[in-house]
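Quick one: structure for this chain?
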Amino acid sequence: MNAVIVGGGPAGTAAAITLARGGMATRLIERTTGAHDMVCGGFLGWDALASLSRLGIDAAALGARPITRLRLVAGRQQVEAALPHAAAGLSRRCLDAALLDLASASGAQIERGVAVRSADPERRTVRIQDGSQIACDALILATGKHELRGLARPLALRRATLSVGLRAVLPPSPTRASALTDVIELHLFDGGYAGLLLQEDGSANLCLSVSQERLAEAGAPAVLLADLASELPMLDERIGADIPRALSAIAGVPYGWRARSTTRGVFRVGDQGAVIASLAGDGIALALAGGIGAAEALLANGPGAAANWQTSFRAQTRRPLALAEALRHGAEHPASRGPLMALLRLAPGLVRPAALLTRIG
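Got it. Here's what it folds into:
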């Protein structure tokens, strides 16, 4: 029996490591040719750290910056609270490279710089860029937020509510290092939020989630960032003179989406299985858990396990995604953001159960 994995992010590599160690012939196909950054990711919650440790990766040894506190900022208001457990900041460039190396060392066949153009789920084949087809007993779809022809997520009814992800890196700065040491900082604004944390090299990862409407009003990501700097004093202070010249972007992010079903032998993992609002900080953990879980189901029960596993994963992610969506909508709208901040100032301890309940385990 053999498996093909499309996508070399955390979900795909976690599946590849687990399958290869279980003795299954595993082929992972990744479209990029080398180390690269992604728009999403950077925050590793305690659940993500536990999954990485289970796979054999020590995030601290990779230089991950410890995070034990959350700081919420809305204009000139701010609330700070302890996280339930220690988390960390690590760039996707570093994390993904470590996971791919481990997958290769575990015995998986890694092919980089190869684009998969389409898939036939019934025949369990994929067509790559040179026109040739690859057949397999099991297909693990781990393409993140990118759709694959033949297995695209049914998002037609969600087009009006999709979000846009933006990312930039701010260079190392003593001022930012002092402000962001040991903390993840979330800046809330109408139509979205921005997150800041320190990475292994001392740079700061700046990620934004914004509604399509808010970005359209601004006209361009750089204009949006300038608008936000003018209305969010602390974010402006964090950026300082290091205004990003360009921002990486990914459009059409369907927060709250979960795969309902699948075809025999086809496992949807990562954002192809469930998309949690980045405000909850659990995207990497969900990706790792999904990749490991799908691989374990395949090893135990073969390709026929796909439908039951996908249904089970959908059930597992129901509560975390629902709560994350409620928090996201509360943070993005002025009518609810003020009361939310007031409540958290009175009872910052509420951060702990909220953080725990957006996890699947």
